Amino acid sequence: MDVETKMKSENAYKRKKQPEFVRRSLLDQAARITLEQGLSKVTFQSVADAVGVTKGGVMHHFATKNALVLEVFHDAMAKFESEVHHAMAKDPVSYGSFTRAYIDATISLGEKGQAEFDSQATLYVLMLGDRELRELWAKWANEQLQKHEATDNTETLCMVRLVADGIWLSDFSGINISDKKSLRERLVKMTQRENE
Fold first, then answer.
1. Cβ(115)–Cβ(186) under 8 Å?
2. What is the distance between the alpha carbons of residues 144 and 126, in angstroms, rounded to a whole number?
């Protein structure tokens, strides 16, 4: 048995005792492949190779590629939602709090860790590339807008969220924005009641 085969065998033995660690690694690597190479490159084999497990090891956790992609999406969605809720919980002003939290979760000024930005980017890349995932995103967004109708249902706040999405897309596409910090501050200021 060569050294590489022996190492894979030893790693597989150790991982048997850590199924949640393996599952987390599979999700993280599928997300990384999605961002770096595109959704079409996410295969059981590519994810298995990235994690160092067999293709069957991936299939143990996810019966189909669609199941894997859907779980990557739900994972990214949960992280995004958690970030929004956390920001809202810290906001002392209820008016516009969802929109401000959405700005914080959407526009990166480099203060977030790379993993957080990747989760957000993964969410958008998957959502933009798949009708079913877009429908899930729309369902979540519509539920949030309905839930926060009393505080965030104005034309101005809607425009602010749309601009935040545009800034994110520019960022992701590599389009330079001269003063993103100033734009973000201006958007936040627009969420204050006196701007209505």
1. no
2. 20
For 112-161, the DSSP string reads S-HHHHHHHHHHHHHHHH-HHHHHHHHHHHHHHHHHTHHHH-SHHHHHHH
The pLDDT tens digits for 23-54 are 999 999 999 998 888 888 999 999 999 999 99
Phi/psi of residue 187, nearest 5 degrees: -65, -45
C-alpha to C-alpha distances, 162 to 105, 147, 168, nearest whole angstrom: 13, 18, 10
Round to whole Å and give the CA distance between 72 and 30. Answer: 7
Q: Are 79 and 27 in contact (CB under 8 A)?
A: no
The CATH class for the domain spanning 3-63 reads: mainly alpha
Task: Judge whether 148 and 91 are in contact, CB under 8 Å.
Answer: no
Closest CA to 171 of 102, 160, 26, 163: 163
Amino acid at 97: S
Helix (H) or strand (E) holding 108: none
> What digits encode the pLDDT tens for the residues 86-129?
999 999 999 999 999 999 988 877 655 555 556 677 888 888 87
